[in-house]
Design goal:
With 275 residues, this protein is mostly helical. Helix 1 packs antiparallel against helix 2, helix 2 runs parallel beside helix 9 and helix 4 crosses helix 5. The chain is globular and about 50 Å long. The N and C termini lie far apart (40 Å). Bound molecules: zinc ion. The site of zinc ion has 5 residues, from helix 4 and helix 6.
């Protein structure tokens, strides 16, 4: 219903940039209330003080993401437009129904993200360079974890959709795909008992994604799609399993240790490549 509502809100006024902000706030409020009263794992409920701190952190990291997004647009728009002309990539079907275009951007962006995310878990230098360990370091997950990433990881997170948008000159459907993705990433980190089988064929669910957050290496090296699960099904990394523990190891690093993770891995990490 949440996915349907945000897509509907965007469809009603596709050029309204504030819909992205409303989608984040609306999804977080709805999921936060359900997590409070109907948590899948009561032991994952975090104290009000920690939650307030996380909200402030996500707000600050969102500002970082906006700056990095602007930098990418400045750096990539002209070269990718040149590439589009030179390589004959001016093929985007602008005349197709906009909801079909939205799904195309979504699935294509998730394809790029699938391989980038798999690389983060495969090679130590990509894991470190991206700071991806920070996103995995939390022992308790909830909807806010969608935005709890190392600041430098936004250079990775924002790239797939911008590459699709700017290479093909997508236009308005790209904004709809971003709104769908950000809502999905909130849902898939939520501490709510959800595993909708029908939706879970194309989109990842929080059951599948929490499996990726496991402190067990074999469980963590699965379900790389953070919004779509289709590419894990195609490339054989899909796993449907209940996990016993989330995080990078038995303990959660401090905020400072998380910030330093690109240069120094916590001693008890069990899922970092090469650990
Ligand atoms: Zn990961």
């Amino acid at each position: 219903m949440l996915l349907f509502l945000v897509v509907l809100a965007w469809y009603a006024d596709p050029t309204n940039e504030l819909t992205y902000l409303y989608a984040i706030i609306g999804a977080q409020l709805i999921l936060g209330v359900i997590e409070h009263y109907l948590p899948a794992r009561p032991e994952w409920i975090i104290r009000a003080r920690q939650k307030t701190f996380n909200v402030i952190l996500v707000f600050c990291l969102t500002l970082v993401a906006l700056v990095i997004g602007d930098l990418y647009v400045e750096w990539l728009t002209a070269p990718l437009a040149t590439l589009r002309s030179a390589a004959g990539l001016d093929i985007w079907p602008h005349h197709w129904p906009v909801l079909i275009q939205l799904l195309m951007v979504f699935v294509a962006s998730e394809f790029i993200w699938y391989w980038m995310h798999r690389a983060e878990h495969r090679w130590t230098w990509v894991w470190r360079l991206s700071g991806h360990g920070v996103h995995h370091s939390f022992k308790k997950l909830n909807a806010l974890n969608f935005g709890l990433n190392h600041p430098i990881e936004y250079f990775f997170i924002l790239l797939p959709s911008l590459l699709v948008e700017l290479t093909f000159g997508v236009g308005v459907a790209a904004a709809g795909a971003s709104i769908l993705t950000v809502t999905q990433t909130s849902i898939v980190h939520s501490n709510i008992r959800l595993n909708t089988v029908g939706i879970g064929w194309l989109f990842t669910t929080n059951h599948y994604h929490i499996c990726h957050h496991s402190a067990d290496l074999d469980e963590s090296n699965t379900n790389y799609g953070c919004s779509a699960i289709i590419w894990d099904r195609v490339f054989g990394t899909f796993l449907d399993r209940d996990i016993s523990e989330a995080g990078t190891g038995p303990t959660e690093p401090t905020l400072w240790e998380k910030f330093l993770m690109p240069v120094r891995e916590p001693d008890d990490t069990s899922i970092a490549p090469g650990a």
